[in-house]
Amino acid sequence: MALTYTPVDDIPKIVQGLRSAFNANLTKSLEYRKQQLRGLYNMLSENEAAICEAVFQDLHKPPAELMIGESGMIKQECIDAIKNLEKWAANRSVKTGIVNKFDNVHIRKDPLGLVLIIGAWNYPLNLLLAPAVGAIAAGNTVLLKPSEVAANTAALLTKLLPSYLDQRCYRIVNGAAAETTLLLEHKFDHIFYTGSGAVGKIIMGAAAKQLTPVTLELGGKSPAFIARDVDVAVTARRLSFGKFFNCGQTCIAPDYLIVERGIEDKLIEAFKASIQEFYGSSAKSSSSYGRIVNKSHFQRLKSLLDQTKGKVVVGGETDEEDLFIAPTLVTDVEKDDKLMEGEIFGPILPMIIVDRLAEGVKLVNQGDQPLALYMFSKNKKAIDYVLDHTRSGGVVVNDALVHFIVSNLPFGGTGPSGIGNYHGKRSFDVFSHERSALIKSMGMEKLNDLRYPPYTEKKTRW
Ligand code: NAD
Questions:
Q1: Which of 84, 133, 215, 265: disulfide with 420, CB 3.0–4.6 Å?
Q2: CA 51, CA 242: separation in Å to the nearest integer?
Q3: Which residue has the CA at smallest separation from atom 40 of ligand 1?
């Protein structure tokens, strides 16, 4: 499906329309918000086949991966928000001293206003619509900017959305860097961006000009530590799932392995076995394996493979026409290898072998804080050691990726892997303003005498 970019002259009108709709209080009632969330849910339910097809066109994404990593999760976020909205949006009373004993003192959860959500291509539904659930639930008007790189999904959402969501309050603008740059000249009340750190800096710079708060969901090199004591077969299976899901194009995919010396040969065999189990003898003909999103990302990954000084022990096959890169494991990778420079963001898994986990900790701490960190071990002391001596957005012990779908765990990075977090109630909070409120009655005026001038000696004696 062809994606038409929004004419740049339309952008100011769209922004103004959404601003007016917010000012007219259209999004304030909880019933209205729930109705819109039901609309979003229905859009996903009633158009499953078309959505599957569009995301397949963009990423060759297997329907099961779409369900687990995108549509199923967004639908669950809608259900949770609808179910809990009254509770989330309720005023919260605070304790007061004697002076405010007769007042109503509380925190309101007010919407921020008009918010902008900018999505990335690798989970083109989730990264746009999961934050939108929080923004709608919190009572904002919302401008969505899908990634133009996943063009089929963006085009389909643009077609579907008007039938399910109130167009006065929720709109899509399509485009690439030029259109987004224009968009960023407008005043928003929050910008929620998912994508690379390089563009994150541009977004934050533009937001700073208007003092607009931001949430930045970025990336990084997420390491997986593997201690000597692990069950090698289970570890390889869970890591193969985490790494090769969506063809490695996942912000929290294990980027590289730090393996304690002694188990590497067994681990390689276990990876071969799990890849065979998941995708058969040819990942290329497996309906469970995705593709690289486009030629430029394919060439970037191919060039990493060509330049590595490590040894490819599993996979390594590529086909540019088909944008196919096999699930690939590279061993004997050194710290200064090409594969260790930036986030890989594809199905290539380098393995660094260390004598002690402490070496791996040192290596991780020499780089930026990653978005996720994985630790595989049965030994509590070793687990605590790695967790206590590293920093990362999130951490999972003995599995990979799965924290993303636990809605009560705030998801986000730290330092260069991101600012802020979301999912579940946290998404509602991100798009809400905690407005302090003190409601006094007109009575009890005598009590106020103490603070009014003239400040006689009696009044100031404490
Ligand atoms: P992308 O190319 O889809 O870009 C993201 C968004 O930024 C798009 O909507 C795009 O139109 C916009 N954009 C691009 N250039 C711009 C510019 N100059 N000015 C303004 N807007 C611009 O995605 P990407 O950047 O390739 O995403 C991959 C990165 O995102 C990886 O680093 C990955 O780890 C990270 N990521 C993070 C998360 C997370 O939840 N933390 C999720 C997915 C991806």
A1: 215
A2: 23
A3: 217
Q: Which residues contact 290 (CB under 8 A, 6 or more apart)?
A: 59, 60, 61, 62, 65, 246, 247, 249
What residues contact residue 33 under an 8 Å CB cut-off, 6+ apart?
27, 85, 136, 137, 138, 139
**Is the pLDDT confidence value at 1 over 90?**
no
| Tokens 């390594």 found at | 316
Give residue 236's pLDDT band: very low, low, confident or very high (50, 70, 90).
very high
Options 70, 217, 260, 264, the catalytic residue? 217
Q: How far is CA 273 from CA 20, 178, 266, 389, 446, in A?
A: 58, 46, 11, 33, 81
Residue 462's pLDDT band, with cuts at 50, 70 and 90, is: low
- What spacing in Å lies between the alpha carbon of 199 and ligand 1's midpoint? 7
Strand partners, 106: 93, 437
Mean pLDDT of the chain: 97
pLDDT confidence of residue 447:
83
In short, whether 127's Cβ falls inside 6 Å of ligand 1 is: yes
Q: Nearest 5°: CA angle at 53, between 51 and 55?
A: 70
Whole-model pTM over 0.95: yes
Residue that the structure tokens 């390889």 belong to: 236
Asked if 251 is an active-site residue, the reply is yes
ipTM of the predicted structure? 0.95
Provide the token pair at 222: 């997420």
Number of the ligand 1 atom closest to the C-alpha atom of 149: 3
Place of tokens 């009254």: 86
Q: Where would I find the H helices in 24-166?
A: 30-46, 48-59, 63-66, 72-89, 126-137, 151-164
Phi, psi of 123 (to 5 degrees): -125, 75
**Given 179, 251, 260, 264, which residue is catalytic?**
251
User: Residue 272 has which token pair?
Assistant: 């071969």
Cβ-based neighbour number of residue 68 at 10 Å? 16
Q: Rounded distance, CA 228 to CA 263, Å?
A: 6
* Cβ partners under 8 Å of residue 316, min gap 6: 305, 326, 328
